[in-house]
TrEMBL record:
Reactions accelerated catalytically: S-ubiquitinyl-[E2 ubiquitin-conjugating enzyme]-L-cysteine + [acceptor protein]-L-lysine = [E2 ubiquitin-conjugating enzyme]-L-cysteine + N(6)-ubiquitinyl-[acceptor protein]-L-lysine
Pfam families reported for this sequence: Filamin, zf-B_box, zf-RING_UBOX
EC category name: transferase
Organism ancestry: Eukaryota, Metazoa, Chordata, Craniata, Vertebrata
Name of the protein in its database record: RING-type E3 ubiquitin transferase
UniProt xrefs under InterPro entries: Bbox_C, Filamin/ABP280_repeat-like, Filamin/ABP280_rpt, Ig-like_fold, Ig_E-set, TRIM45/56/19-like, Znf-RING_euk, Znf_B-box
Length: 580
């Protein structure tokens, strides 16, 4: 093998004008925030200082992969895998992405060294006028020059010694200030197994860089070649893999941009809806407060009106009482102390006064009551465009003014539901307009007072109540309807329950001749006949009633109950007509 002395990755090149070195984050540790010191590359491709990784708290996991971990390129990465076994594995979490990192047998120091990060740190130090760089030989003094042949950073003293040695006399020395624009100034990468040898070869079988001593030792008879000769093949495979990964990066960036846009739109929408909620609630609160003020003002007006009415009634009754007392006291004094002549003389005036007082009409009950109710669930219309609830009512139902209505009020049929309506009114005879009153209804047969009929009362919420019941047997029933345990107007009353309605089995026709199609034997309940042996009625003939009627019972009303008794005595011809 002939060594190519121009390594493809180890060149010293100038950065294009105006170009900075990659990402500043590639030179500082994410944990200690300082420049990298012995940086280690984790499987998640994040770089952390060796000392920082050693300070992380490890945890134990079960390794079922068999053999050692493959996270180190200088240790166990290229060793042969052992048979698959269950064994404890020590791991840590990446301090950047929290990915699990399984440590190799050598621990943190067996992880791959990030030489690219070390090169970036060296360039970063050069831009700081050499601060932080020490001599690679004495490790004491600051660096002044760099040997391009050995790729070593040297102080002034070691540089002079380097030139005096015969082996290194002709090595090229460069000032550090002349390297500030370079893209790479990294140190040679030495073999971990042979620290005196530089890694210049690559073992294809083990897929790892090796030195010359490795080739003649552990990797004897393995296909090896210089790194500069194999970099193209391996670089192309990495580039192909990169081409497959880059679209995912773009897709993820677009997805994140969409998520960011959606999140921004979401925040904007949430704020807009929040403003709508605030505006609505503030308006609603104002409407409720305004409605509250109106209700309180209405309540105050009712109080003043009722108090004025009571005061007026009180004054009238007090004046009437005073007049009554005056008349009574004067008359009593006259009858007990006056002489016969005095009584007769004043009799006319006294009689006239007492007669007039006795004719004065007055109410022994207060003209108004304390009845004031608030219905919070009652709709009160719109206020500021909002539907509000709550109404104050002074109406009180008066059972004596309540009215019963309905066709089934005084009649019903057995086993058929009867209905009637209770209309509640106040003392002034006005409809209550709202429900909620205590309605009591009882339907009891007169001959079976211990067997009341089940009743149903439906509150229509408008001051009316629908009452229904289903009597089981015909007869006379007594109905009680009470409001607040007081009978309403017309209660109690009786209802006559008749037998179940009988429908007509016949036909409603003009005559038997027409409805039977001219059959001579067909008869009709009206009793009419026709010449020529026709037993049924016909237009203008004997017995025809002169208008449409039922063939079964002879009734003239189409919607009526049938009164035909039926039975075995009925003529067969009449039954046949009925069937029509």
């Amino acid at each position: 093998m002939a060594e190519n002395r121009k390594p493809l990755l180890g060149f010293v090149g100038k950065l294009p004008s105006g170009t900075t070195l990659g990402n500043s984050g590639k030179t500082h540790c994410p944990l200690c925030m300082g420049l990298f010191k012995a940086p280690r590359l984790l499987p998640c491709l994040h770089t952390v200082c060796t000392t920082c990784l050693e300070q992380l708290e490890p945890f134990s996991v079960v390794d079922i992969r068999g053999g050692e971990s493959d996270t180190s390129s200088e240790g166990s990465l290229f060793q042969e895998l052992k048979p698959r076994t269950l064994q404890p594995q020590i791991g840590i979490l990446c301090p950047v992405c929290d990915a699990q990192v399984d440590l190799p047998m050598g621990g943190v120091k067996a992880l791959t060294i990030d030489h690219l990060a070390m090169n970036d740190v060296m360039l970063e130090s050069l831009r700081g006028e050499g601060q932080g760089l020490v001599c690679d030989l004495c490790s004491d003094r600051e660096v002044e020059k760099r040997c391009q042949t050995c790729k070593a950073n040297l102080c002034h003293f070691c540089c002079q010694a380097h030139r005096r040695q015969k082996k290194t006399t002709y090595h090229t020395m460069v000032d550090l200030k002349d390297l500030k624009g370079c893209s790479r100034i990294g140190k040679p990468i030495l073999c971990p197994a042979h620290p005196a040898e530089e890694l210049r070869l690559f073992c294809e079988l083990c897929d790892r860089p090796v030195c010359r001593d490795c080739v003649v030792g552990e990797h004897r008879e393995h296909p090896c070649d210089f790194t500069s000769n194999v970099i193209h093949k391996h670089g192309d495979s990495v580039r192909e893999l990169l081409k497959g990964t880059q679209p995912h990066v773009q897709a993820l960036e677009e997805a994140l941009a969409q998520i960011k846009g959606t999140n921004s739109a979401l925040q904007a929408r949430v704020e807009a809806v929040a403003n709508d909620v605030r505006s609505f609630s503030e308006g609603y609160i104002k409407a409720i407060e305004e409605h509250r003020d109106k209700l309180l003002q209405q309540l105050e007006d009712i109080r003043v009106q009722k108090e004025n009415s009571l005061q007026l009634q009180k004054a009238q009754l007090e004046q009437l009482l005073e007049d009554m007392r005056t008349g009574v006291e004067f008359t009593e004094h006259l009858l007990t102390s006056g002489s016969d002549l005095e009584i007769l003389i004043t009799k006319g005036v006294v009689v006239e006064r007492l007669t007039k007082l006795n004719k004065v009409e007055y109410s022994a009950h207060p003209g108004v009551t304390e009845k004031i109710a608030f219905s919070p669930k009652e709709k009160a219309g719109l206020c500021r465009g909002y539907e509000v609830y709550g109404a104050i009512s002074t109406k009180e139902v008066d059972p004596a003014k309540c009215v019963l209505q309905g066709e089934d009020l005084y009649r019903a049929r057995e086993k058929q539901t009867a209905f009637f309506t209770l209309l509640c009114k106040d003392a002034a005879g006005e409809n209550m307009g709202k429900g909620g009153d205590n309605i009591q209804v009882a339907v009891v047969p007169k001959d079976k007072k211990d067997s009341p009929v089940k009743t149903m009362v439906h509150d229509n919420k408008d001051g009316t109540y629908c009452v229904s019941y289903t009597p089981k047997d015909p007869g006379v029933y007594t109905v009680w309807v009470c409001v607040k345990e007081r009978h309403v107007q017309g209660s109690p009353f009786t209802v006559t329950v008749r037998k179940r309605h009988r429908s007509h089995p016949g036909v409603f026709h003009c005559c038997t001749f027409c409805s039977s199609g001219g059959q001579k034997t067909a008869r009709c309940a009206c009793g009419g006949t026709m010449p020529g042996g026709y037993l049924g009625c016909g237009h203008g003939h004997k017995g025809h009633p002169g208008r449409p009627h039922w063939s079964c019972c002879g009734k003239f009303t189409e919607k009526s109950e049938c009164t035909w008794a039926g039975g075995q005595s009925a003529p067969r011809s009449l039954l046949r007509t009925v069937a029509l």
